[in-house]
Amino acid sequence: MLNGRNAVIYGGGGSIGGAVASAFAREGARVFLAGRTPGPLEAVAERIRHHGGTVETALVDATNERAVNEHADDVVAAAGSLDISMNVIQHGDVQGMPMAEMSVADYLRPVATAVETFFLTSQAAARHMMRQRSGVILVFGGSGNPVPGLFLGGLQTAFEAMESMRRQLSSELGSYGIRVLTLRSGGIPETLPQNMEGAGEIADAMTRSTMLGRAATLDDVGNVAAFAASDRAASMTAATLNLSAGALVDR
To answer: Sorted alphabetically, which Pfam families does this protein's record hold (predicted)?
Structure first.
């Protein structure tokens, strides 16, 4: 589905970024993994190469405007285009604590980080995509009604902010043939740290909140992202792809 496409994934060494990168490479894309820690990036890259994919890595701070712009320029110089951009870096959120007990700094950190990094990486991609008059920008997270008993801190607000930005970008970039889409998962048990206190209970709560009796998996995320970035979704923009197994109900 993605032959000839060049995809940049910020946070490509993480579980979600790695799953998306693997799916993109499997579908023929040339993948550029960007992140701040070399070890995880190289681990994902090695898995992709083992299966015959094409991948490159770069150390990039996705909250640094100059670094983001220089990396996007390097990708285009090396590959000829920047066709897909997805940002799944960590936002420094504090979870497991009720809002009433949180500090304002802990609550606002993921909001500020999410807005800043999504702005910078989307802007860098848009500069090239507007000249190409094509491209796809993918958002991960979306928003939905909070699940009782899950304390997400500022993460939910960060997701809402990114959704607002996605709507604005869709409107501004549509005339250039650029599509902007959000993937909403409702939570992925596989991404919970094994040593996280209460991880089992949180995973169970994610599953119980679904209609299908199972939560989304990393494979689900990768498969849907590959579809969204491909021409099979050519008429889709300004929308969310709901892969939450019914946990997040669209209205």
So the answer is: adh_short_C2
